[in-house]
# Entry
Amino acid sequence: MKQIKLLTTLLLFSLVLATSCQDNLEKSNAVGPQESSLAALREKISKAHASLPVDVKKNMRQTSQLTLKMHPEYRNIVLKALNVIEPTPCDGNTPINIWLDQQLSDWNSEVIGYVLDFAMLDLPTYDALVFENSSSNQYFGTSGQFTQKLTKGFKDLKRFWNIDSDGIVLAAMHGNMLLNRDRIIRTYVAAFGLDAATAAVFADIVVELANQVPQYRKGDHPIFTFNAFAQSGFDFPPYGVIPDKIIMGDGIMEGFAAIGYGDVAPQAILAHEFGHHIQFQLNLFPDAQSPEGTRRTELMADAYAAYYLSHARGASMQWKRVKQFLSVFFNIGDCSFNSDGHHGTPTQRLAAAEWAYNLANNAQKQGHILTVEQFTALFEQQLPILITK
# Structure
C-alpha cells in the first residue's frame, strides 16, 4: 500500500456497534469469561471509559486505524466475521471465510465489544509498524512454524529482483503482545495519542482481558493478526525514522495453512508485499488514490509475485500448485469497484498472475530474470487486456 502519513490522521471509517462497555452487555449462551473473575474487570472498564475525554472515546471506538494498514480483502474478512459490516454479494463461502467463522464461533457481543473498545485489533499492527525495526531475531507464526519459509523466501526475493532491498525490514506481527503491558502502553501513546497515565490504565485492562477471556487465546487468536502489509519508510517524530518494512501477521498465515496451503501461502503473500516495495522504489504509485490506480498497482504486485514464485531461479514452485492457492486467495472477493481500495476482481487477479507465469515459462532465454524495469514495462502494455477479464 502507498506510504501514508498515518498516525496523525483520523479515518472516517466507523466501527460503531449498538453496545459499549459502559452499557449493559448482552449475555449469550456462547462460552464466555467466568462471571466471577470478570465482574471486577467490568467495573474497572466502566471507570476507565468514564474518565476518557469524549473525543478520545470516539476515536477509540468509532475510528479504526486498522483500515489504514489492511488490504481490503483482509480487512473485510475480519470485519464481516465480527458482524461489524454487512456481507456483500462477493462474500461467498470461501474456505478462508468458513475457517475464520469457525474460529469465532464462541464469540458473543461482549467479547467483540471489548476488542473494539480497546482497539485490540490495531495494537499488534501498530506495535509491529512502529517498533519492530530490524529483521534480526524475528520468528513467524505463534510457534515459529513459518520462520524458515519466510526468512529463506525474503533472502531469495532480495536476490531475485534488482532493487535496493538491503534496507527493507521483514518483521512479524504477534498477537501475544497483548500480554505485554509495556508494549501496549507505548503503542497506545504512539498510535492513538493517549497520555502515558491513560495508556497504562488501558494496558492493564487489555492484559487482564487477554488473560481472562478464553476466546482471545492469550492474544494468539488469528483475528488479531489476520493481516500483512508493506510500508515505505517515513519520519515519525519523536520515534525517528521508520524503515521500509514488510509485516507478516501470524493469523493470515495460520488461516491459509489450516485450509491446506501452508506450503505456498507464506511465500506467496510475502512475494506480493515485496512487489509493493518494487513499486515504492520505481515510484509507480499515483499521486492520488483511485479505484483504477489501486487496481493497477495491486494487479502488478500479483504479477510480480507469480513471476517470482514460478520462475526457475525464483521460488521454482509448480505453477499448478501456485495457481490452486491463488485461486483460493484471490477468490476472497472484492466488490468495491468504486472504492479507492479496489484490488481488481478475482478473475483479473488470476489473469495477471497467469500472464506473469507464462512470461517466465515461455521466455526465449530460459532462466533469464527480467529486470523490474523490463517486467513493469511489459505489464503496463498488458494491463488493458487484463482488466477486460
Residues 1-33, 62-68, 337-341 have pLDDT under 50 and may be disordered. The longest helix spans residues 291-310. The first strand starts at residue 169 and ends at 173. The beta strands are 169-173, 228-231, 234-235, 241-242, 245-249.
